[in-house]
What we know:
Elements: E1 9-10, E2 22-30, E3 34-43, H1 44-47, E4 49-58, H2 61-64, H3 68-84, E5 98-104, E6 108-112, E7 115-118, H4 135-145, E8 150-156, H5 158-169, E9 173-179, E10 183-190, E11 206-210, H6 225-232, H7 241-244, H8 248-266, H9 285-292, H10 300-310, H11 316-347, E12 360-365, H12 367-371, H13 373-392, E13 395-399, H14 403-414
Parallel strand pairs: 2-5, 5-8, 9-12, 12-13
Antiparallel strand pairs: 1-11, 2-3, 3-4, 6-7, 9-10, 10-11
Helix pairs in contact: 3-4, 5-14, 8-9, 8-11, 9-11, 11-13
This protein binds adenosine-5'-diphosphate and magnesium ion.
Amino acid sequence: MAAARLRCLISYGRSSPNGNEEGLFYALDLGGTNFRCLRVQLGGKERRVVKREAVEISIPPHLMVGGSDELFDFIAEELAKFVATEGEDFHLSEGRQREFGFTFSFPVRQTSIASGTLIKWTKGFNIDEMLGQDVVAELTKAMERKGLDMRVAALVNDTIGTLAGGRYHDDDVIAAVILGTGSNAAYVESVLAIPKWQGLLPKSGEMVINMEWGNFFSSHLPLTEHDHALDAESLNPGEQIFEKLFSGMYLGEIVRRALLQMAEEAAFFGDAVPLKLRVPYVLRTPVVSAMHHDMSSNLNIVGKKLEEILGITSSIDTRKLVVEVCDIITKRGARLAAAGIFAILKKLERHKASVDKPRTVIAIDGALFEHYTIFNKVLQSTLGELLGEEASDSIIVKLAHDGSGIGAALLAATNSHHIGL
Length: 421
Ligand code: ADP
Ligand code: MG
């Protein structure tokens, strides 16, 4: 990967969680499809996460491509509603302001632990006036407009949140990968390996690299005509090519394009091309997943989905081929994601069995990995294939459910205004 176009962003952080954090902290996680509000009561070294509560809110599509104030007003309002439901088992120490970690999972130029400017939008968002703006300042203004008295203590993205959350529970976590609407990864690197870093060296001798791997591109990537067309017609042509090969936002769309070609060139669904098959993004990844996992003898689920979503009446042979298309596209994606993880392990020289490093853990967050079982299994088996039998025993891939949210709350706690006061 080193020779290819891969932008590395270095994440700031005054310190990382060490387990001593205490008190009530919030997180706001804006990932792509939904955003999550979360609160955790941290109980220090012994009790860790005493209690947590979360809500998930889907973002109305018009707000993804509208104005900046509209999006942030909506988020601030939903956050205020969530804060209003805080029960008695959560305790904010007297005189303290509520603080939260803001997980904003888009490429950002981070200027301090709690500020950063947006470089570009991805994953279906496109609000031009936000480019170059400080996302924390925009959110803070929206909270003021809504009368919500809260402070952003840390700005992170989902990879950094997942890594911090993962390490809080397990010291052997060395990397975090997001497989959700989009895809990205972060890992822990020795500062000596980061010539780009000009600032003070952290005492630990380590830093976190947010790879922004969704934007990885190489001429070796196996791009088909469908990938090229999907990219050309997307909101961000030429960008996020790796992400567009397998993340949740795009898998279904690749399948749709392949089926459309079969319909047009081989009358796969009969003489007429089904009209609905021409609608971009009509076939969502969860539907592809449901069809792919259909174990019934006459593929009832496939038949039902084709009928419901595309208006297609299908024979059993047609259904079988549809499943095969889902299989080819999903397996390609899972294998590419596994190759990305293997690249991190190789960079860190953790890809070979070693007595000094008996355990290496990768924390993965995202609904694609969590719910798409075949994708998950193929990713793990491919990683095993790349590592070989001996080394794969020491590599553990672990689901970090809502890791990005918990991690952001932890980072808020570690970087709280009140720490050390
Ligand atoms: P985000 O990346 O926005 O934080 P999530 O981790 O919730 O979001 O992932 C959302 C993505 O996961 C969606 O784009 C969807 O394609 C995919 N997804 C959700 N449920 C499933 C499922 N059952 N099977 C496959 N993919 C799913
Ligand atoms: Mg997420």
